[in-house]
Amino acid sequence: VIDRCKSVLCFHLGMTSDFIYDYGNPGERLATPQEFTRILNEIHHEFVKDNGKIQYKHNWEEGDFIISDNCAVAHEASPETQTSRSQVGLRVLHRTTVHNPIPPAKTL
Hints:
Pfam families: TauD (PF02668). Keywords: Dioxygenase, Iron, Metal-binding, Oxidoreductase. The chain has 108 residues and is of the alpha+beta class. It has one domain. Helix content is 22%, strand content 9%. It is built from two helices and four strands; from the N terminus they run E-E-E-H-H-E. The protein is extended and about 55 Å long.
């Protein structure tokens, strides 16, 4: 049997505090502030390049209901989600966390 899954990273670009090079090896070290910023910028660039081609963008309509797996879907809030309630109406989001003992992986 061939294992066709590859490990994936699940993290929030705005809440990541550091990256570690050569983890668990004698040369292990934290990224410098410049390396840290470069890595975050490169990841974000991959997400938004080609006008966000790899992103799912939803045009919300009243009554819409979406379930998504935050660990499997790269996403970010669009600017209009930060607009005042008086301009765009009330937006209610509920978050539920489900524990899965199997680590997330990308199936090839």
